[in-house]
Design goal:
Blueprint: H1 2-9, H2 15-34, H3 37-60, H4 70-78, H5 85-100, H6 117-138, H7 144-155, E1 162-165, E2 168-171, H8 177-188, E3 193-194, H9 195-201, H10 206-218, E4 222-224, E5 229-232, H11 234-245
Antiparallel strand pairs: 1-2, 3-5, 4-5
Length: 249
Amino acid sequence: MRDAIIADLSTKVPTSLATELVETYEQLVAKHRGGDLEAALTKAGRFVEHTFRLIEHIRTGTAPAEIKQVGATIRAIENDTTLPDPLRILIPRAAYGMIYDLRSKRNAVHVKETDPTAIDVSLTVAAAGWITAELLRLYHKSDEKSVADAMLALTRGTIPMVESINGEVFVGRAVPAKFEMLLLLAHAKPKGMNRTALGNAAKCSQPSVSTALKALGSDRMVHLGADQAYYITSNGEQTLGQWLISGGR
């Protein structure tokens, strides 16, 4: 999917710009999944800069090496009525409000000392996925079905701990087999995974995979479809969410 998104965006901007945007998005997601939240926020800032560089190339024919004044850049973009509204209004405001401006608004002292970084990063990841999907919707050459699937994948919530290297998806931290299955299935949603795929992706033993799936099925946390693929249920998502909130304990 990565190469297809870059190829689609490259129909409008240089491949180097498209690659920088997509790679920074991937790095942001990877930092979030790995739990490195401060690094994720740094990558989010870089993503915003690449977003505005890409828009500036579409607007002027030239991408600046860096965005020195974000506010001035946004005003120039919003005043350019030759741009489509998503590029002129929606994307810049999402990039600034939900990503770039988020950390500066956290400088005030809070009554409660609960660290908001985790929810901040979740918001930035979601916003970056939406921005990438919207750019893809505006500028693509692939067939509509492929673009729709890519947009759905980009706007789907990211699952912590799940990594992908050379197309191989796995859980990057040792966790109980039950939660390893739920993490993998949550990542695959809306698609499912058959027993072979789960066995290949899992780091736990094959007997542990079978035992976990049987228990999860009995508890209605996963559903075995007629296509012989396993799907996470709403009950499974709720259980996984509570486990993640507890810190994976």
